[in-house]
Amino acid sequence: MRGESLAARHLADLGYTELARNLRVGHDEADLVMLTPCGRTLVVVEVKTRSDPGARPEERIDHGKRSSLTRLARTLVEQPALRPLLVRFDVLAIVLAAGLEPELRHFIDAWEPGSA
Q: Is the pTM of this model over 0.85?
């Protein structure tokens, strides 16, 4: 949960608006759902956090997770208020190693919906 809080704060600092955290739609769950600063793109965010200083958390997102988030996004944009929005999938990889500053990497547009 600390990773999600750091990710949400990072995105808020960049001007994103948080719409939901730990959003469940059926069996699918998104860590964060954000709106870009311009208000035209819905961003479904997967946050991966590890404590190993050499970790690459982003490598832990498999095809199943990408498919799950894509299904969730499709359901969201069926809602009339969200229908006109574009959809993007971002990954925030966070390393919280003991005694070190958190390391955060933001992968914008990490995959295309059709490639999941």
A: yes
